[in-house]
Amino acid sequence: PRQLRVQISNPPDTVKSEHPRVLITGGLGQLGVGLARLLRKQYGKNNVILSDIKKPSDEVYNSGPFVYADVLDYKNLQELVINNRITWLVHYSALLSAIGEANVALARRVNITGLHNVLDIALENRLRLFVPSTIGAFGPTSPRDPTPDLCIQRPRTIYGVSKVHAELIGEYFHHKYGLDFRCLRYPGIISADTEPGGGTTDYAVKIFHDAVNSKTFDCYLRPDTRLPMMHISDCHRATLEFLQAPAGQLTLRTYNIGAVSFTPEEVAAEIRSHIPELRVTYTLDAVRQSIADSWPRRFDDSNARRDWGWKPSFSLPELVSDMLRSVRAQRE
Ligand code: AKB
């Protein structure tokens, strides 16, 4: 079959070497569009390319460059990186914890084979490569409260196994070949205008929508299940600050980043200070409950704070009032 040429209609804003040219894979998930917005503010609209295998909304399509890219297609990715003079790659494509358990073979391909493609391309083209890891990279034998950067990691999900693999092989490529690999372990991310796709922490996004829309919420985790969580704007800022950090400041290449830690009953109580009628019921999902029970309850992120100045800005009350404001604004 004839090879398709990948063309970006917008030329680079500049080809000045001080501006990175960024490609984001899996860009239409929960995190890509917001990170692209932040990076475009800093580096220019056309220097940040979003990619995915799905069709973007008109709003996303009109906000800056978007291309089709399948992380399982090595040649397509390589062509994109070369044609667009990419210097930083943010690898967001992955199947999350719950959906991964329902599709182990696909999760293995996307999360492991896809990562291998991205690693080889990053190495070949001397890219700075950012790969997110997660609280899901820990398991039942890890210390859970708090969980430090370096400890036992024996996750029991394909998602967790693939993320530990990403951490280890990325660091190995860094030490052996000098790849500029950077990895943050994200908590559950709470966002109003983008949806998480198939994770264990998704309840903490849905509760805000249901609280505003119906004042009732049915939770699939036990009321006392504590997990590390973070407002999406803290997540984007952490990612940008970490990407910009001088390599000499990094004593690790994989860092925990923490912000808040809460249980379903705690977040519900905080929402009730705005919506007193909120009624929460609990119908447990055994798969997601057992995943959550094996994950950290709190993150120790002291290394990130010390090395590159990480500091979250949203407390639980601030996160809750910001989410309720955004969800209500969407309804209007
Ligand atoms: C999930 O729940 O799978 C993700 C994560 C914490 O990595 N949100």
UniProtKB/TrEMBL annotation:
InterPro entries in the cross-refs: Epimerase_deHydtase, NAD(P)-bd_dom_sf, NAD(P)_epim/dehydratase
Residue ranges of domain NAD-dependent epimerase/dehydratase in the record: 22-258
Source organism, top-level taxon: Eukaryota
Signal peptide: none
Matching CDD domains: TDH_SDR_e
Pfam families reported in the protein's UniProt record: Epimerase
Name by which UniProt lists this protein: L-threonine 3-dehydrogenase
Species annotation: Huso huso (Beluga)
